[in-house]
Amino acid sequence: SDGSIRLHQMTSEYPLLQWNDSTNGQPIIALQWAITRPAVFFVLDASSNIYIWDLLENDLLPVAKQAIPSEKVVTMALLGETEKSSGFLGIALAKESGQIDIHYIKKKWAVP
Question: What are the GO MF terms of this UniProt record (predicted)?
Answer without folding.
Answer: dynein heavy chain binding; dynein light chain binding
